[in-house]
Write a structure and sequence with these properties.
- The complex is a heterodimer of chains A (725) and B (307).
- Chain A has 725 residues and is mainly alpha-helical.
- Helix content of chain A is 66%, strand content 1%.
- In chain A, helix 12 runs antiparallel to helix 13, helix 13 runs antiparallel to helix 17 (384-413) and helix 20 packs across helix 27.
- Chain B is built from eleven helices and 14 strands.
- Chain B has a six-stranded mixed beta sheet with strand order 6-7-8-3-9-10, with helices on both faces.
- The chains are: A mainly alpha (725), B alpha/beta (307).
Chain lengths: 725, 307
């Protein structure tokens, strides 16, 4: 869920700074008051850890893999304020050095992932764990829920941020300037892709991490203050709020919320709750149906549990329970949204749309309407509870049919299906595309012929290290941009990226790209590499992602192809918007790559001081960057060691447990390492304030370049405002 | 490698002259250290070290050598006992009193260079110490150039630590300590995991530092380098106390002592001599040659020392 540049208007992405920057300031203050001089080494190492966790490919129940952020776990262990800093630093490094997430978008990405997730996860963890003993399972569950909800809320937020773009930011001809998907597309896309993927991973990371610490070092599950200020070991006190109370509270809260919402939507009249006409309901019939359903439930569910084979007991009983309570929906009057027959539509709206008339008779289902075509069940005068039983039977039949179909498909396609799913999940969905959109380069296969999650993680790590070495080499050449002061380069970069984000004109974007390309050539960057590396990554995915939007954005159509009842009609506005987005993203990424390839990373970090980033942040960034490679190296070794020892297929649960153990071990090591580094810093005179050394001085040439860039940008934007349509 | 004349090694004329104390540089009486969990690392150490001595601290892994060095460096305080260094109480230094000056005068080279190289580039790490001292940019640059030349890593100044090999990292770590020109230099297992060339560079360096008047304490379990780097050997036993304290020649010749301290091992080995199997105990100590002159199977053993 790292948002690249180009998807959001700078007004939103940079504007989020109004929330993020004060949070950073507050977090720094809070953390320093507890950690004091240890702040820098501890946070640097945990940032490196967060970065490393973000690289893990975690197998999710269902066969795919996904990435987590680790913000929830770090919030639980170090407290939310420290997590804000640690995750922000990891994100900044990802954006600047690994092109993961845009540079202008750093502020909003940090808000979504480094502020929202830690706090939501932490509060939910505290709420659910509620003073349970440190070693209890309830804490593990609380950590899972915290991570899960935190990531989901964050995904919802991203959906809103993206969805709001076409509403607020269109250019003069009505073309969407940024992400073309509205709220009704972006929100469901983000939620679905996270609720079944990344949120689970985030929850798992939290749960596994807490479980590890419970076994090895429970004192870290108390507060940061306790770990670093005193030597007392803390035993958990007895739980003050039992679990059933909590569950009851949540249920009551949920029901009250729904009831209120229904009243509001129904205009305050309980008989019109949620806008439906409840006076039509035959309450005695409902009562007898409920009784019958309850009786069936009490008999059938335990029976299912006893009868089914062991592997299916729990799942099977659960599914049967679901089928048995399904008829409760029959109580509500009216028809389900979008599911009315022609008669229902006529009654509700007064007419039947032509398309509905033409097509609704096309197919006749055997168990139409979820009833069994026997008089006992589907007769118009049959009691409600007859219909309910028919509903349950058809439901169970349906479940069996679905299950059989899926098993057949899986058997036919075999292993290749899971590998296709392991690639960037759902590339056609806007939500997923804003995740890490780097295609997996190295497809080393495991024994069954498909690249496993271990190989993918290893490939990711190897790719990062290789990229780092490559860019450092280029940054040391003696060429045009390499000789410029890094602060001037940072300034030029920010100014031009801002221009690329603000303009709505293709001509200007082309001009900006031309300038970038020229600068790259003058800096001895291999042109072919520069073009391929930029365009075949994030912009390509951006292109794929916006293709669907072309077909449903309103406006005049380029052409219309009719295939039976289907009409394929791309809108001109949609196509223009798509091109604009891709160009914008491409220019932004090109600029970022150019900056990183012509400036040693240590210098980029130091130049952040020139844009008023606080000293302590820059120091943490420098140290984090340095330790990321140590972590990557270690994780590489751990994963390789596992790969060399696995001789049989392992279950998803075992794999997840192993990942949890690995992360926990890394965390323990992080604490120890930060203590050692702190000692090493003390031993060389560190006393809290760190002084740094900068070898660069701004020369005339640097000022000229900087001023020239600003002038060029102002001129171009001015031309756009005044002359271009 | 720069010539011996590098001023990084020589006595520091710009340092404030510490008054000539009759007190030794280090004075330990009954020093104990126990970890928070209860594990005892040192159990009553009595030791005096005078200025200019070159001491080797021997002991098997886990005998408390690293902990002792950290105590001597003033980054942890003893649980019990008296520890005075350079005329000051170390416990007070750890609590923050005058820590700055103390750390300028004592330098510790950690065993793991990754801990010591925490900055983004080698130059930044070497410059860290002088910068915290408050030196001017030019002075800092000069000091760094000296220290890096001395360790032969001037060409690595802009590299990030992950780009360096193990030997280069070690040299960088040492340079980062040398740039402060400390009077006392502590080294924790400096030759661990090093290639032969770097090892000899290191031994050479310690020799020169000693000749220039620095006090040097090296913790190691590699017996072969001990005569070259020290005039005095202190052995820590597995009971966490000083087992022996004397000249290298004396201590290293005491086989039973070395066995007790787990510094050498003894094994049975056998070979055929005229059809009969001869077994005898055999250990590897620095410089030991082993030579059978009787029987058909007369041969010499080449002693390869444990790594």
């Amino acid at each position: 869920m790292h948002i690249p540049d180009g998807y959001l208007s700078p007004l939103i992405s940079v504007g989020a700074g109004m929330l993020t920057v004060p949070t950073w300031a507050l977090a720094t203050q809070r953390v320093k008051s507890v950690l004091n001089n240890r702040t820098i080494p501890l946070l640097a190492i945990f940032s490196a850890l967060s970065f490393t966790i973000m690289m893990f490919n975690v197998p999710v129940p269902g066969g795919t893999t996904a990435h987590g952020v680790g913000a929830g776990l770090i919030a639980i262990i170090l407290g939310p304020w420290a997590a804000v800093i640690a995750v922000s630093v990891a994100l900044v490094i990802q954006a600047l050095f690994f092109g993961d997430g845009g540079v202008l978008a750093i502020l909003i990405n940090c808000f979504n992932m480094a502020v929202v997730i830690p706090f939501v996860a932490y509060w939910i963890y505290r709420l659910v764990a509620a003073r349970a003993p440190i070693l209890s399972t309830r804490r593990v569950v609380a950590a899972f829920i915290g991570g899960y909800v935190g990531m989901t809320v964050s995904a919802l937020l991203v959906g809103i941020e993206l969805g709001v773009q076409p509403l607020l930011f269109t250019n003069a001809s009505g073309v969407a300037m940024y992400s073309p998907y509205g709220l009704s597309e972006a929100i469901p896309a983000m939620l679905v892709s996270h609720v079944f993927g990344a949120s689970i991973v985030e929850g798992l990371i939290g749960a596994l991490g807490v479980a590890y610490f419970q076994k090895r070092q429970p004192e870290y599950l108390t507060s940061l203050r306790t770990v670093f200020a005193t030597d007392d070991s803390v035993a958990g006190t007895a739980s003050r709020r039992p679990l059933w109370q909590l569950a009851l509270g949540i249920v009551i809260a949920g029901v009250s919320a729904l009831a209120t919402l229904g009243l509001v939507l129904g205009g305050g009249d309980p008989a019109h709750w949620f806008g439906a006409d409840w006076s039509q309901v035959d309450w005695p019939a409902v009562a007898s149906m409920l009784l019958v359903t309850a009786a069936i439930f009490a008999v059938l569910v335990p029976l299912a549990y006893l009868v089914l084979p062991r592997a299916w007991k729990r799942v099977g009983a659960g599914l049967v329970a679901l089928a048995v309570v399904a008829p409760l929906g029959l109580i509500a009057p009216g028809f389900a949204y979008g599911e009315g027959s022609t008669a229902d539509v006529k009654a509700a709206f007064g007419y039947i749309p032509q398309g509905l008339q033409d097509l609704s008779g096309a197919f006749s289902a055997p168990l139409s309407g979820y009833t069994i075509p026997l008089p006992f069940f589907s007769d118009a005068n049959a009691d409600l509870w007859h219909a309910a039983i028919g509903y349950e039977i058809t439901g169970m039949l349906g479940m069996l049919l679905c299950g059989a179909a899926i098993m057949l498909v899986v058997r036919l396609i075999g292993g290749r299906a899971s590998s296709a799913l392991a690639a960037p999940a759902g590339a056609g969905v806007p939500g997923a595309a804003v995740q890490t959109a780097r295609p997996v380069e190295d497809r080393k296969a495991d024994r069954s012929g498909k690249p496993g999650w271990i190989e993918n993680t290893l490939a990711g790590i190897a790719g990062n290290i290789e990229r780092a070495v490559f860019t450092e080499q280029h940054a040391r050449l003696d060429a045009f941009l390499q000789r410029v002061d890094p602060r001037a380069k940072l300034g030029m970069f920010l100014v031009i990226v801002l221009a690329a984000s603000l303009t709505g004109s293709y001509a200007i974007l082309v001009a900006l790209y031309a300038v970038t390309l020229a600068a790259a050539i003058a800096s001895r960057i291999p042109t072919e590499f520069f073009v391929k590396r930029v365009w075949l990554g994030i912009p390509l995915f951006a292109g794929i992602v916006v293709i669907p939007s072309i077909f449903f954005i309103p406006g005049p159509h380029l052409f219309e192809i009719t295939i039976g009842p289907l009409v394929i009609a791309p809108s001109i506005n949609g196509i223009l918007g798509a091109i604009l987005l891709v160009m914008r993203v491409g220019v932004s990424v090109s600029l970022a790559v150019l900056l990183v390839m012509t400036t040693p990373w240590a210098d980029i970090l130091k130049s952040l001081r020139a844009v008023r980033v606080p000293q302590v942040f820059v120091l943490i960034l420098s140290m984090t960057y340095r330790y990321i490679f140590l972590f990557l190296h270690t994780v590489n070794g751990i994963f390789l060691a596992r790969k060399s020892r696995i001789v049989a297929r392992t279950s998803g649960a075992e794999q997840r447990r192993w990942i949890g153990g690995t992360m926990g071990a890394l965390m323990s090591r992080s604490f120890k390492m930060s203590n050692d580094v702190y000692a090493a810093m003390l031993a060389r005179g560190f006393s809290g304030e760190m002084r740094t050394y900068s070898a660069y001085r701004m020369a005339t040439r640097d000022w000229v370049l900087l001023a020239g860039s600003v002038a060029m940008v102002v001129a171009l934007l001015g031309i756009e405002r005044l002359w271009l349509p | 490698m720069a010539a011996v004349t590098g001023t990084a090694i020589g006595p520091d004329e710009t340092a404030p002259v510490t008054r000539q104390d009759p007190e030794p540089v280090y004075r330990l009486r009954g020093v104990r250290y126990a970890y928070p969990g209860g594990h005892v690392a040192l159990d009553g150490i009595d030791l005096d070290i005078v200025r200019g001595e070159r001491v080797s601290l021997l002991g098997a892994n886990g005998s408390g050598k690293s902990t002792l060095l950290k105590l001597l460096d003033g980054i942890v305080a003893p649980s019990e006992g008296e520890l005075r260094a350079l005329g000051r109480d170390v416990a007070a230094v750890v609590a923050g009193q005058d820590a700055f000056r103390f750390h300028r005068e004592v330098g510790l080279v950690f065993q793991d260079p990754d801990i010591q190289l925490f900055s983004a580039t080698v130059f930044d790490d070497v410059a860290f110490g002088p910068l915290q001292l408050g030196m001017t940019r030019d002075d800092v640059r000069e000091r760094c150039a000296e220290a890096m030349d001395e360790m032969g890593i001037a060409h690595l100044a802009d590299r990030a630590p992950f780009e360096l090999s193990g030997g280069e990292k070690k040299r960088a770590a040492i340079a980062s300590v040398l740039s402060l020109r400390p009077d006392v230099i502590l080294l924790d297992e400096p030759t661990a995991a090093l290639d032969p060339r770097t090892k000899s560079v290191l031994v050479d360096l310690i020799g020169r530092l000693g000749k220039a008047g620095r006090t040097i304490i090296t913790a190691t379990h590699e017996l072969e380098i001990v005569p070259g780097i020290s005039d005095r050997v202190v052995v820590l036993g597995e009971d966490r106390r000083v087992l022996a304290d004397g000249a290298p020649a004396t201590v290293l010749a005491d086989r039973s002592l070395l066995l007790r301290a787990n510094l050498i091992h003894e094994h049975l080995h056998g070979h055929l001599d005229g059809g009969a199997l001869i077994e005898h105990s055999h250990d590897h100590v620095a410089g030991d040659d082993h030579h059978h002159s009787s029987g058909v199977d007369a041969h010499d053993h080449e002693v390869t020392l444990p790594a």
